[in-house]
């Protein structure tokens, strides 16, 4: 991410203007507030003085109950612009509170309601947004005979406040303009040497003329930078001269090396041709190795099948050989006329027993061959057919018996006995074989006795096949890519990393289903497979 840059000019003007603005606003605001408060106090003192004058001048008229004389006295205050209303309240001995006696109202304002109910509050001046009010006692010969109420406007104070704000704005604008002009002049004086120095550096960079030097300036900081830059240019110039000399020597050496390179090139061409021939031979060997590996895998499968089939056939041969020996003895006794009924009866019983052994073992061998044949046919065919799901799983387990019986691992199958499905048994066969072999190779590599659970359920013409083992589990970094090709934990130990990739393709493409694998270290794997099927009716 590119770091944000700043201009010295912009920063200098911004900082100075910010400081000036804050300082000027603070000083003007404090000065204005102080002056406005002083003006308000002056207005308050004037109102108190007028109230005192009115109280003194109206005392005689109020005492004599002369309203005409009092009205003439109050009318004289029309010459005071700030006074809007004056009320005179009489304090009679038999009255519970003062009563209205006389008043003065400015013609442009009109009468104002009596305020003697606010007597305690208005003994000190009270202000609202536009007016100032107060009451003053009226005494005659030391006796309290009434009160005077004054209501004055604050037009003069508002005008003063407005004029003060306008003058402050004008002063602030003028001061900021002067500060901006002075700052702009200052930044020009400060940045001009830097710009000259920058132009010089750009010229040196463009022309590669390291003999140029930075000019002197009258700023100590820029002058120190110029000296350091000149020292660096001195070193660069010396190094550049050395580099030019070295380049000249290299050109001379290159001329001598061209002949050697030409000779080596010819030798390399010959070596490359030999390498190409070797690579072609290696590809042939690789193909042979692949074919050999295929034959080896086929040989292992045939060996496993042969081992499974040899056992019942061997038992059948043993039983038939024993029966043949018994038959020879009976035949000899018959020819010698020594055959007894007990011998014949014993021979018949033994013959039936040995024939039963031969029949059962031959039937077992035939069943094994049929199962292996069906597995082989299913693996090589993608055609759909109706089959018994449990029988298919058992055939798969039977084909893997040579691998399973070498271990103590347990395989549990939870599948309805008569579940008939119409689907593709070949992909299902290969999926089960790959999952079981994956558990044997990876999950149970460090485990003596593992457990595999295969559960099959159906719902809404969909088959759910759940495969579980309690093996080592799959690491998190591999689980996210478990179905990718060539992903294996047995790299270098024979694992190709194609088993689960093949399972994923079989489920999603051949069966048109979906697969999900969940696993964590030490808790085995849980594979959920779901694909569409047709559920055939039970026979």
Automatic annotation (TrEMBL):
Coiled coil: 226-288
Protein name per Swiss-Prot or TrEMBL: histidine kinase
Pfam families reported for this sequence: CHASE8 (PF17152), HATPase_c (PF02518)
Domain HAMP: 188-241
Chief location category: membrane
Domain Histidine kinase: 304-535
Uppermost EC category: transferase
GO molecular function, one term: ATP binding
Transferase found in the keyword field: yes
Catalytic activity entry: ATP + protein L-histidine = ADP + protein N-phospho-L-histidine
Signal peptide: none
EC number(s) recorded for this UniProt protein: 2.7.13.3
PROSITE patterns: HAMP, HIS_KIN
InterPro entries: CHASE8, HAMP_dom, HATPase_C_sf, HATPase_dom, His_kinase_dom, HisK_dim/P_dom, HisK_dim/P_sf, Sig_transdc_His_kin-like_C
CDD domains in the record: HAMP (cd06225), HisKA (cd00082)
Annotated compartments: Membrane
Keywords: ATP-binding, Coiled coil, Kinase, Nucleotide-binding, Phosphoprotein, Transferase
PANTHER family cross-referenced by the UniProt entry: PTHR43065:SF47, SENSOR HISTIDINE KINASE
